[in-house]
Amino acid sequence: MCLFSLLHLLDGMSWVWALMTLLDPKLSLANLIYIGYKGNPAAALHVTRKRSLNRKKQTTERNVFQCYVFGSKLAGKSALLYSLLGRPFSNNYVPTTVEQYAANVIELKGVRMVTRKILILREIPEERLPELLSNQDFLAACDVAVFVYDSSDEYSWKKSRDLLEKVVKHGELTGYRTPCLVIAAKDDLSPLPRAVLDSFKVTQELGIKAPVHVSMKLGDSSNVYNKIINAAENPHLSIPETEISRRKKQHHQFHRSLIFALVGAAMAVAGLTACRVRAAKKNATTA
Fold this sequence. Notes:
The protein is of the alpha/beta class and 287 residues long. It has helices at 3-23, 25-34, 51-57, 77-84, 129-133, 154-174, 193-206, 224-233, 243-286; strands spanning 64-71, 100-109, 114-123, 144-150, 180-185, 212-213. The model is unreliable at 1-10 (pLDDT under 50).
């Protein structure tokens, strides 16, 4: 077996293991024991810190990232997953009624070295979203949320924008604020100017990156998987800010400023009082 084939095989094994462990950690441990793993099976799993802490520290130690894929029907969600698996594009439409996953190793080329991360895409069927949002911890395992829309269909954009608003609101209410990206799919068709302009405007208002235009049919992914990984590696960026969150942030900043001002005033009063006491003692001694 040549070195390239061996590396390809190892890559395949790594993302299969990562996906299996994500879906069922207990099964992964059982499989390790079954194949005769000599070490401590539990030590083979690395428990990383919470995503909320990653956002505070503005970094992450993860090598496996899970991305939730939202979007309207016929937007191109499944094509995004199939392309990650290396499958050829197909014009045959099969509606997604249950959640499906895709995973693969993504190479990130840096200035001095190449790093390898595992990306797992989880496609969320449109009709299942209300049920999933009823779970407070729905976004707890999400590193990045992407919202796909058909750039040639205005209704598709409006529907995906509605999904974006619902997910962002859910994140604000539950504390699971997640980096978000908008993907304008089917760029090989004639994009509707109104949808393109509105999607750009919405991303600007939310403070996230402009939509990524892709065409899976033409094989033009615009490095979308690298961009998803990049968003996951910078968990404090690309987090949407709505008007409500901005007001909360301003209120928090005002509250902190007020506390600092009160503390400063108290220290000034204390200093002035101390000076007066010293002056009074000095006058009493002189007299």
